[in-house]
Write a structure and sequence with these properties.
By secondary structure, this protein is of the alpha+beta class. Strands 3, 4, 6, 7, 9, 10, 11 and 16 form an 8-stranded antiparallel beta sheet that branches. Helix 3 packs across helix 4 and helix 4 packs across helix 8. The two termini are 42 Å apart.
């Protein structure tokens, strides 16, 4: 029967996926459980999620800027069992920038496998818990949870029992490889590396004597050795900073402050404050091995290059490794392969074709200018890590306008430097301004001009993933104007929804939940119903979620329309019911579900249960128009970016309310 029911819902979802007026409980993810015996007392629990086509399941660990709901494993009962480490994903994670979220998102497609190692410590081992997760397609999101139980026998054999499902978005690896490759090309243009190209090429030509074939063979080994050395560094980082540390690295203040300091130290080095060098004995030891010649000599020549160029390449390599340290094993390796490939190409190329050396530009002050430009970029990127720690722990150090002010000053100084008006210790005098420097200065100052409106509350959508949230902005001109206009236009008008007025209570949870565009409303259905009865208005229910990207898109592109906004503010009592909010409710607000018999103790679980029980659907966004008797006025509406259609939806609901 369970399989027939799942098949039935699957068919319904397929047939009516584009017509959400037919209510449906969606179940795009199906879970199964298994085990693997590791030893007499250790077992690996295996959680497998089969994901329907066109749907995706969010990963366990999301960047702190992303508000989607991650997949979360909770073990609420452990009897004679100990957990070893944490739940680890074994499937490929897809990453991309979510424009509406303004941040990198991470998800699984088709299948996701998670594992958890456990140790048996007694005679009657037992494990139970649940999985909280969100799955989305291009039109809707569904918040779900899945219970699981593992009854373990004395010899650690597993009997797994799966319960019914309880219904309730980083750069890609290719893009990261390209960015790392560009970083390698930039490293070549630094003063520590660029002058070594003719020196190393001359070495290979000299060591090969008249045998050009041997010289080119040694040069090829040299290039491959460079790639191998840097890839080994990436491999070490991938093992050290693997998936188990992902969440800690993303949110804890210790690694973020460490990364911030690393970036600032690298920047200071690029500005010429000091030079980061390795101990001379290390460089000399590697250099002695070069004299052995042959393939081994070529390898140590590459190793010597890596050591000698450390002061210039370390900031770039360090930046790549820091940006890749999000818990994915393959990313640091890919980054180092990209960097080292670009780094090795010119040495190998000119060793094969030494006659082309004459086409290289002469070394000079322009090399130091490259370092300084990189220093300014390091400063800007470094503050991103400080911002993450600041947001996570609510220190209040880097509000949005403070962060923007730092960026504006940093890039203004960079533009001034490019014009030759700012000079560092190792810079040569800029006697005239070259066309490339002028072009770069124009780009930098244009970027500064783009940033300035952000100081007054402009959203700066192109940079939203790098900036603190809009809510941290103290002087938001748009919000101030909107609030003042609302106060002037609607004060005293009986038609306006007024939570907190004489006939309506102050809304619960308004200290941390907010409706967009200055709409005044509720976050608790019972409060909204009482206010609707008092003001004789219909209710607009917004089933939404913090991690619902399409909900934000509807708010930005449909709700913001003046015709929609005026109707929501004047004609309806608006209530936003978040299905993924983790806020624990006071005991008097708990409910026992008539659907599964379980007690709903959090805001999200209570609202999700309310949506399923009353409307037989669990997708968001989902909009319902109710009379003040709690009954539907017209068919609900889901994701639809047609503003005229949404206005018609609101007007029909109001018309039906007046008829009753």
């Amino acid at each position: 029967m369970k399989r027939l029911r799942s098949l039935f819902f699957g068919v319904i979802a397929l047939v009516f996926i584009t017509n959400l007026s037919f209510a449906q409980v969606l179940q795009p993810v199906n879970w199964s459980f298994d085990k693997k015996q590791l030893s007499e007392t250790e077992i690996e629990l295996i959680f497998t999620a089969k994901i329907d086509d066109h749907w995706h399941l969010y990963a366990q660990y999301l960047p702190p800027e992303n508000f989607s709901l991650p997949t979360y494993f909770e073990f609420d009962s452990l009897v004679d069992v100990e957990l070893i480490d944490t739940v680890c994903a074994q499937s490929q994670v897809h990453e991309a920038f979510e424009e509406l979220a303004g941040a990198i998102s991470r998800w699984f497609e088709h299948e996701a496998i998670f594992t958890q190692k456990v140790k048996i410590t007694g005679n009657q081992p037992f494990i139970s818990g649940y999985i909280d997760y969100m799955t989305c397609d291009d039109k809707q999101c569904v918040k779900l949870d899945e219970d699981f139980e593992f009854q373990l026998s004395e010899n650690a054999a597993i009997v797994s029992e799966k319960t019914d499902s309880k219904p309730e978005g980083k750069t890609s690896l290719l893009t990261f490889f390209v960015l790392a490759f560009l970083g390698g090309l930039v490293a070549i243009l630094t003063p520590c590396v660029f002058p070594m190209i003719p020196m190393t090429v001359s070495f290979f030509m000299h060591s090969g004597g008249q045998n050009k074939r041997k010289a080119r063979g040694n040069a090829l080994i040299y290039g491959i050795s460079i790639i191998a050395i840097y890839t080994a560094i990436g491999s070490i980082v991938s093992v050290t900073l693997g998936p188990e540390f992902s969440n800690w690295l993303s949110t804890h203040w210790v690694p973020n402050i460490f990364f911030f300091l690393i970036f600032i130290i690298f920047a200071a080095s690029f500005f010429g404050m000091f030079e980061m060098v390795l101990p001379s004995w290390m460089v000399n030891s590697a250099d002695k091995q070069v004299d052995k010649g042959g393939g081994l000599g070529s390898f140590f020549m590459a190793f010597t290059l890596v050591l000698v160029s450390f002061s210039c390449t370390a900031p770039i390599v360090g930046s790549i490794l820091v940006l890749s340290a999000d818990g994915e094993i393959i990313r640091p390796i890919i980054g180092m392969v990209g960097f080292s490939l670009a780094f090795a190409i010119p040495f190998t190329f000119f060793a094969f074709f030494p006659s082309k050396l004459g086409n290289l530009p002469k070394s000079g002050g322009w090399l130091n200018s490259v370092k300084v430009v990189l220093g300014f970029i390091e400063v800007a990127l470094g503050f991103k890590f400080l911002s993450i720690a600041d947001q996570t722990y609510h220190w209040g150090l880097l509000d949005r306008e403070v962060y923007l002010a730092i960026w504006i000053v940093t890039f203004s100084l960079l533009g001034t430097y490019l014009l030759g008006k700012l000079k560092f210790a190792h810079d040569s005098e800029v006697k005239f301004l070259s066309v490339p420097r002028l072009g770069m200065a124009i780009i930098v100052f244009s970027f500064v001009v783009y940033l300035i409106p952000g100081m007054f509350g402009a959203p700066l959508k192109a940079l939203s993933g790098y900036l603190p949230p809009q809510a941290t902005h103290d002087f938001d001109m748009e919000k101030i104007i909107r609030d003042n206009v609302s106060e002037i236009s609607f004060s005293g008008a009986q038609a306006v929804t007024s939570p907190g007025s004489e006939d309506c209570e102050e809304p619960k949870y308004a200290d941390f939940l907010h409706l967009p565009h200055g709409i005044k409303g509720y976050y608790d259905y019972d409060q909204a119903l009482a206010c609707a009865k008092a003001q004789n208005k219909p209710i607009f229910i917004d089933f939404t979620g913090h991690g619902c990207v399409n909900c934000r898109e509807m708010e930005a592109r449909v709700w913001a329309d003046k015709n929609v906004l005026s109707r929501l503010k004047n004609d309806y009592v608006v209530v936003a019911l978040y299905v993924d909010d983790k806020t624990r409710l006071p005991k008097e607000d708990w409910i026992k579900s008539t659907r599964d018999g379980k007690m709903k103790k959090s805001m999200g679980k209570k609202n999700a249960d309310f949506q399923i029980v009353n409307f037989n659907i669990n997708a968001q966004p989902y909009y319902c128009l109710l009379g003040n008797d709690g009954k539907l006025l017209i068919d609900p509406k889901a994701y639809d970016l047609n503003v005229n259609s949404f206005v018609e939806f609101l007007d029909k609901g109001l018309e039906e309310f007046k008829k009753r």
